[in-house]
Fold these 3 entries.
Entry 1:
Amino acid sequence: MTENDISNIFKNSVPGDPETAGWGDRVRRAHRRRRRTRALTGGAALAIVAAIAVPLGLTMGGASKQVVATPAPTPSHTATTTPMPLEPDVCREADGSYRAVTSLPEGRLPDGATRVWLCGGPSDLFAPEFVGAPEPLTQGVVEALAAFNAVASQSGVVDCPANSNLTFITVYDYPDGSQHVVRGSLGCDTVFSLDRHRADAQDYLDTLRRLWNAQRSDLETSFTANVALCPALTSVLGVELSGMTRAYACGPVDGGAPVQIPLSDDLVKEMVAELSAQDFDGGPQPGITWEAPSLVFLSKAGDPYTILGTPDGYYWYDPEPGGMNLWRPSPPLAARIWDEMSRDGFCTAPDRLLPSEVRVDIYDGGGGSASVQRVVDHLAAAGFDVTNTQETATPSLGGPIILRGGSESNGGMGLVGSQFVSVGGELSREDDVVDVLVTSVFNDEDPPFAREPLTDVPKGGLTCHA
Amino acid sequence: MTELHGDVEHGFDEFLRERGGRLWRAAWLLTGDSQHAEDLVQTALVKTYGRYDTMNSADHYEAYVRKTIHRTYISWWRRKSWRAEIPTADMAETPIDGASSVTRVDVVRALDTLPRSQRSVVVLRYLEDRPVAEVAELLGISQGTVKSYSHRAREALRDCLHLVPQEATP
């Protein structure tokens, strides 16, 4: 079946066009409802505050301190109650989309706001999803408002060099029930309201972070609610992995209903210790494929941080300055992580024993035996004992071979003439070889690519697909 | 490039008359269900309506709506469980012949085995004939990921018993 065949099947199978009469009216009505909802949401704010305050154990007056006595959750295979959303409803429109920015009188936030909500914003990435604080800012509201108004307005085109995907929304509550919504983008270093944009989103967010941290310190905030963190949430508050106290495995990945499995306190401590001790110096770009259960950490105050799973490790994008981090857990810790994930059959623990002898079926699809021999030589140079079985080759396959594994996570490790050669590095015995991929040329527009990608569950040792 | 109509309301209706079906077809392949497809298109239109009169051409606005459709579709899986509702039994609002019906059911079943992000990629590649680079830009993913997803989708579709080319051609 060729690409043209698939294209033809798609085009022939789609039903005839629907009747679109009336769509325009429905869209306009829904659009007007959105705008009205935006205005009315302020009236519901008090109820929302109460709903959030109870599970968070917060004192909304802000004057007195309260220490939450709810015990930390005991790890279990599944949550006993339905997790609630981490972000308050005030962060979303009725249709689930992010709050839209509002127009500001004379371009400034009016004085007199009583509360500020910090929410996540839309990201270009599939994952993670950014979220704000579960609780509102009630102390330092005047300073937050002043920080926004102090940011200078800009004119002209907004330049977004895309060095960060972090966006956030702040919602200001006023005593009359009205609200103002502004959105910040670190990638554009700009804060937007409906009528203008301002520079220095980073400064504004830094102020908000400082104010939230001060409030939490003063109120001794402890977040114990059972919240939905999967498939991948990361806080805009700039939390450090070293401050994480809970963690959850999230899966299945990339489809289906998310499953959220609490990990034990001991395991969380060990993971945090290993992550904190790691010296990151950047790494190759792995793409955004997300092929294994991810880990979502949670701080004492309720700020999540997600690292995305791949078959041989974890990676995550540090929103600031947008770099990527890689972590390959030490073998004992990896075994423990997989053991806890494997409860109830959630995952299948991989056998990560590295074989001393590798049998690779290398198929020569016309590239010539010299290419095959180069692959064999490369493997042998890496310390593997390779049995070259090219005599069993299937003529229909060809092209370079990609050996997956090592710290490249999702990236392929180019061996011979691979387009991924710039992604990967030299293969070594330090790498967990998890898969061998034979590439094949589909057509001129679709250059060589993996003939058989990894499955969702890692395979131990070397698995050959051909 | 088609210029947007001067009267916003009339122009928007005209846009839907000319291009709504095309948007809906992509949404149908994403959701496998006529009503869900309409919901998805209308959700995207509501999200983007405020930008309609700021776009300088219908092509630009359509591209914007299309991008919103795919991104909404991918993000909706966190909040909605379409997979539990699915789809093949209630697809027949439009009269169809037997062969097309079988193919249609198989296409939906095949696509339903794909994660949403992969499904979105294949719809863009094979229904809308968009090149890899454009799909990558539209979905905000790397070109390598687009190729990977396309490949997996092809493999999944090949595994479907009835999806052979001769059955797809009326």
Entry 2:
Amino acid sequence: MTKPTHMVELRDVYMQFEEKKILDDLSLRVEPQERLVVMGQTGSGKSTILRLILGTLRPNSGSIFFKQFEITRLQRRKLQAVRQHMGMVYQYSALLSSRNVRDNVALPLEELTDKSRAEIDKIVDEKLELVGMKDSKDLLPEELSGGMRKRVALARSLVLEPELILLDEPSAGLDPVIASVIDELIISLSETAKVTSITVTHEMDSAFRIGTRMAMLYQGKIIEEAEPEEFKQSKNPVVAQFLSGSTEGPILEGSLDAITKK
Amino acid sequence: MNTFEETFERIQHGRVPFRAASFFRHTERTGVDSVPLVGLVSFFLGLTMALLTGYQLQRFGTERLIPGLVAIGFTRELGPLLTGIMLAARIGAAFTAELGTMQVSEEVEAIEAMGIGPLRFLVAPRMLALVLLMPCLSTVSNIAAIFASSLICKAYFSIAFPYFLDLVKDSLLIRDIITGILKSFLFGLLISAIACYRGLTVKGGAAGVGTSTTSSVVTAVTAVIGFDTLYNVVYTTFYPT
């Protein structure tokens, strides 16, 4: 089997939790510096894709590559080293609640590098400045709003200068202005620092603002993959219904069938 | 295995396995903050034990056996056992609840996603702190109980402090002290391993944290008493006297 030169590649990934099929022979490629947005219904397995790429979940079958590394076959120690090239922003931020903002952002640097405290402080300040959170360094996560937490989580994911960032619903639950700020930050990162990103969301505005390529996940498969303009014009009935938010179409039909069967 | 590999690689690269600050935070919480509880409970138990045995022994005119009885009873058995039970409730519950909350709020996964080993970063400093501090706390327990019994001996049975000390020294063997310390290490290891394991395997949100914390304390207390019995059975097989 050839090793790919893409930033990320998922090959025929099959995943199920107990009896429920989540991903059904899903294949997906992400090229360097691309900003891929994966859209799909809630519970369709979008976040699972990110966890599979990180290697915190293992698929039932199929292969996942990050650059030349096959995540699905790496030993844990090697996987830990590879993860240092990725940054993940969780939907609910997942900041360490007992550490303040500064310590949260500094954690990967303190634990994984030999940098001095002065160097770490400089990087932390720089990243917090980038997300506009420099004044909140001494606050605990519980003292921050949802948007602020997400920005801190983004800063934390950037301190090790990752090549790939994975964002799980980065703008869900945020006001439109803060959502735009985060979106623009993701765009500027990919343009200035050449960071590749995979964003999982069902927020339309945010998705089309960030994405250089869009993918639609439905019933465990990528049913449509295209550039934003082309994606908007998709003839696929599922995509069309998802984008329009209409109650009529195959998406709800599936759910109604399931409900009726029960 | 992965945690050992990670730790050795860090040592090879001249890095500490975990931050000293993190270790000392746990030793403070586990050890220093537990001293009043362990000391007080052992003090009361020492009083009671001296008083109850004293009245029985007095009937045979052998009150001078009280110091030895309390000293041996605590150094070999009750000191480590009581400390183990108290720490399982106080620290074991705290470790499980803390790690469990981190687990359900995705903090543990986030740590893993950064490329940091959660066992090395979260579990190792906690386990080491508890294992190393258990013998110290057992010693606190022994001293508190022996001191309490000396008060009873003086007040009720007319045994003066210097005589009391002589009686303690005569009856206590180095073997008793070593046995107590070995038990303490074992109990520290058991409690911390059970507490951390229960914490990191929490499922089911807030209710799950509650269930796991209860289960952690119950398992740890049972394990401590069970292993104590097993230890005593093995010990008395080799050293019957």
Entry 3:
Amino acid sequence: MADPMRIRAQVAGDKATVRVLMSHEMETGQRKDSSGKAIPAWFIQEVTVAHNGAPVMTAQWGPSVSKNPFMQCAIKGAKAGDKVTVSWTDNKGDKRTDEATVS
Amino acid sequence: MKIDKKLAGLACAAGAAVLLAGCATGPSANLDAEFKAMLQNSFSARGIAKMDRLDQDLGQAACSSAKQPPEAVLKQIEGEALASIKWPTGGQYFGDWTRADKLAQSGVGMAWNNPTTDPKTNGGQCYNCHQIDKKEISFGTIGPSLYNYGKLRGVKDVTDPKVAPIIQYTWGKLYNSKAYAGCSNMPRFGHAKILDEEQMRDLMSLLLDPRSPVNQ
Amino acid sequence: MKHPITLTALAALALTGATAAWAQKTASDGIAEYRELLADGNPAELFEVKGEELWKKARGPKNASLEKCDLGKGPGVVKGAWAELPRYFADTGRVQDLESRLLTCMETLQGFKAAEIAKLDFGKGEMANVTALSTWISGQSKGFGFNLPQNHALERKMYALGEKAFFYRGGPMDFSCASCHGEEGKRIRLQDLPVLYKNPGDGLGMAAWPAYRVSNGQMWGMQQRLSDCYRLQRFPNPDFASDVTIALQTYMGVNQKGAKIITPALKR
């Protein structure tokens, strides 16, 4: 399985701000190695965020997102103690899911 | 070794200006030797960067401190540097300024990971330190701005004998910057074979040709 | 509610104050703003997490963790240790920086071969682990001011040697560290240069490395930063954790006494 994400979720008024750092090479497929061969594309294609098990956001990503991507979103109505789950799938079929508690 | 240092220390403490002069050479000569040994032990040749790059000539050695060297030494460095300048073949100072922007932008060359010391693929890394063309906003400030270089110096026609001194100075500065300022921060592009004649001619045109974008 | 009012007030301030400022904003200012925005979500945190794991995990031929490693403040004391390195270590009889000390501990406690790790390229194998460990350990000194000891004769000697190294001109371009880091208010292209023969201030110079470099997506420790400086100075290659690199860190660290550490930082 891939390296863990860093998730922070903090209540701010009637929402929770969720900040996620994902560990991923996000290879575009355009870069060439020292021998001139293109390095194969390898990037996160889908990201989902769930609040207490219910999906609240889905994102479709492409190769333009940078390496070790950072994402921030706000979940309306989230309270301290709620569970936030972030999952991603990449174009090689690799997956990662991590969870955090809203503070 | 330990005991000598202690004695030297005592002598310094007890003495006045006369003894201090002696002390300045003792421990500092030791430090020099230790420093040279540290360099040899710490560095390794890699790629095109060989250990001889740690050897210093007069100018490099004299300018390796926070303080400027004495006037006489500066004059010597400048004199030797001026004498080393190879003026362009056939007195042809100028080339093609349309090729020069690429040279001024590129900082490639002479590092251990570059394939060859042949200047053909080297850049002049000019924008690292200088402003040159008004369009380029990504310029450094380690050296003075070169924007309007020729215009500011009244160069309307490069063949006019009145501007010959500035033509020569510019070539000389590119070839061996230390000829005009002994401890200059600017690399000696011709002398150290970082750039060849053709490349320097192109840079001359970039800076001095009245039609160059630099002088608009 | 509290927030809407505060936001409106801020917006009003921004509008009035900003109109004059917008006219003066330089390219450098714009880039500084962009970097501030990037600072949230520094990928260096991913390496901090890795580093902490590596410190606590039993590894190597001796199957031991690094939790008994002495970084200068006693075995296992990590908080504030980076702020006091390089320093003299009695067990090795030399002045060591963080990365050389990690090699010592990885060898004596875990049974790894330090000399072999030192030969690896940055980012590979155990060398990548040393970088992750430095990232975490330096983060444990975030907010501290540099406070390198200069009590031992060897520590003072390293300072003097570091000073000589800082001003030493060499290579085909005659560059020394001072060529770029020796004058106030200078920059290369659009990258401001801290003056390193004195204290450049909080969060600058030594206080900003290890750092995650956005431009190449790499986590760089102090050794890699110094090594790459020398590459650009067109010098031969400094060996990993060699004396010249330790001497330079001693010189700069002592010069920066009190400067606030912000590591692991984020760089272009």
